[in-house]
Amino acid sequence: MALLELRGVKKSYKSPDGHVQEILDVPSFDVEAASEVAIAGTSGCGKTTFLNIIAGLLTPDAGQVQFAGKEVSRLGEAKRDAWRAANLGYVFQTFNLLGGYTALENVLLGMTFGPGVDRAFAAKLLTELGLGDRLGHRPSQMSIGQQQRVALARALANRPKIVLADEPTGNLDPRFALEALGMLRGLCREHGASLVCVSHDPRVLEAFDKTIDFKDVNAAMSRGVDA
Amino acid sequence: MIVSRSLRQHALSTFITVLAAGLASGLVMSVFTVSKQSRIAFTGGDIGYDAVLGAKGSPLQLVLNTVYHLETSPGNIPWDVYEETKARRDVRYAIPYAVGDNLQGYRIVGTTAEIFDVFEYQKGIGFEFATGRAFAEDRMEAVIGSKAAKDLGMEVGTEFRPSHGVRYLPGTEHDEVYVVTGILEPSNTPADQVVWIPIEGIYRMEGHYVDGGKRQVEVGAKEIPNEWKEVSSVMIKYHSIAAGMNHRGEVSAGDYTLAWPIADVMGGFFNKMGWITQVLLYVAYLVVIVAAFGLLASIYNTMNERRREFAILRALGARRGTVFSVIVLEAATIAFLGSLLGYAIYFAILSATAVLIRDQTGVVMEAFVYHPALIWTPVGMVLIGAFAGVFPALKAYSTDVARTLA
Predict the structure, then answer these.
(1) Disruptive mutation site among B2, B3, B316, B400 for chain A (greatest number of A CBs within 10 Å)
(2) Which domain holds residue A97?
């Protein structure tokens, strides 16, 4: 049994003129435990919606999202929140760090809603990522690359079973993009987490053994719908 | 952590909102406490004597003039009335009181030396001398209350010339020179601000008229006929409550006024002035409402910049209820800090009011005593603060995570 299974997942949006537009139609998508998969897709093709549905931030109009045999898409919002905090790490393209908090606090904050705050583990993660001397720095006092590493540490802080990365290198200088990707993959391997990485950067995609074109995942795109 | 960090991040608006909440809370507590304590100070005090007899007119004016040394005397009554009162079997003591002069604004009261002997300003407590002795009734001597002596820098042996009138005007000094023979211990009563001289001195003062304003006492005259003498009022202590009732019954039909019981006269005054307390309370409540709206606006204004923060928290697993609670807790915390500041403001207002009342009237108000408002005002402020946080909290609650983070 796969760790993550999506079956017949659909999502539509209503445009301001009242037109209903199907943006996502995923007949089937699986992710095995402790595996990694890269998904290639251009901007605006519904990748983020896809990841948000996996993360439980959005609910599908139809279909099922199962995680470790449990259907999370049918859970109530509060239970989905708890499930997300305990099982899933999310790396955003824009990092989404909280500006008023230090690097360590940003990681600790991620733990607050999960199984529990482990200050030593948070510090260890940041130190492993080369930020041992930046624990008390705020995002504005760090480089973009350092901010990205804080975001990686936060995503792994609750020892998730799966990490979703949405264009994780999109904001990075090309020189550091592969380095950051290597850190992300290394951390996921080290902690036994599956990784789903969505990107349109060929260098990122080439680094993975398994790369899927999002068109092959999202039937709505192959039908020519402007997603 | 989220609440404290947010308060620090928006330090200026937090400070201003805490200040507003503190002012509101402090004002409400102060109005309640000052109105109660001042009422107690003026009506519940153990004055030691029971009644004031004076000219026909307002009992309140009589009490304010004789007990609190405020206002002007409503008029004079003949010396005989004083003597008749003193001679009554149901009267324990009666002490004459004559006003009309001041020493740099401190009221000069003409009386008899009995005031330092039998008179009790509180039940069982009479005046004590810090230094010196009582005046001799046939000399130009004076005894000074503790505060007046301190403020005027008077000591035993200091000489002074009384000024005409109850309010000080430069150039109105009489020719007579008095010498201080005694300074009283503080009594924490209006008497601390009084300069006591023999009542004969009032009659003999140059420019003063006796016998209903018909004549002046000649300089060097040995005796003043009783029928010429007048007093502003008589302070009376009865042997029993029934005596006061009887005396009032007798006086009410005559040409004079008997203010009895004194506490009732002042109580009536405070009842009439109750609307002032109400107005002050309405103002204080208004300040509370303004503070609550200020709190709401302060937090609401940060909502736009914080919407992303809440979306991130939600993405990290925070529940909607958690985000809602954070905002309500933040508002309640601001109100709580405001309430703490409110206590400081309350102490400052009470201290200033107590000093002001003491300086103006000599009445010592016990400022820092328990009043239920000291509990329910801060509690109410926190509840109002939390309530003010509900509206912005609902906005945070309804944050669309996916759309905000897109």
Answers:
(1) B316
(2) 31-61+76-222
Per-window interface: B 259-318 vs A, CB < 8 A: 308-309, 312-318
> How much is the CA Rg of chain B, to the nearest whole Å?
30
- pLDDT of the residue at A224: 58
- Give the Cα separation of A152 and A135 in Å (integer): 14
Domain containing B120 equals 51-260
Residues B65 and B186 in one domain: yes
Strongest mean pLDDT among A178-192, B150-164, B210-224, B276-290 = B150-164
Structure confidence at residue B44 (pLDDT): 59
With CA atoms as reference, report the closest residue to B193 among B295, B292, B260, B109: B109
Strand A36-40 with A194-199, pairing? parallel
d(CA A130, CA A150): 10
- Domain presence at residue A213: yes
Give the end of a domain, one of B209, B233, B260. B260
Q: Which of the four pLDDT bands, split at 50, 70 and 90, describes residue B127? A: very high
Q: Which residue of B has its CA nearest to A83?
A: B317
CB B162 within 8 A of CB B102: yes
Question: Using CA of residue B142, residue B147, residue B151, residue B154, what is the dihedral sign?
Answer: positive
* Most confident segment among B55-69, B88-102, B219-233: B88-102
Give the nearest partner residue to B317 out of A97, A100, A113, using CB atoms.
A113
Closest CA relative to residue A35, chosen from A208, A213, A204, A216? A208
* Interchain pair A100, B6: CB under 8 A: yes
* Total domains present in chain B: 2
**What is the average per-residue pLDDT within B246-250?**
86
The answer to whether A122 and A107 have CB atoms below 8 angstroms apart is yes
Confidence of residue B5 (pLDDT cuts 50, 70, 90): confident
Are A78 and B309 an interchain contact pair (Cβ–Cβ within 8 Å)? no
Give chain B's mean pLDDT: 86
B379 and B356 housed in the same domain: yes
A81 in a domain, yes or no?
A: yes
Tally A–B CB contacts below 8 A. 67
Cβ neighbours of B315 in A, within 8 Å: 55, 57, 84, 90, 92, 96
* The total number of structural domains that make up chain A: 1
Determine, yes or no, domain membership for B265.
Answer: no
ipTM computed for the complex: 0.87
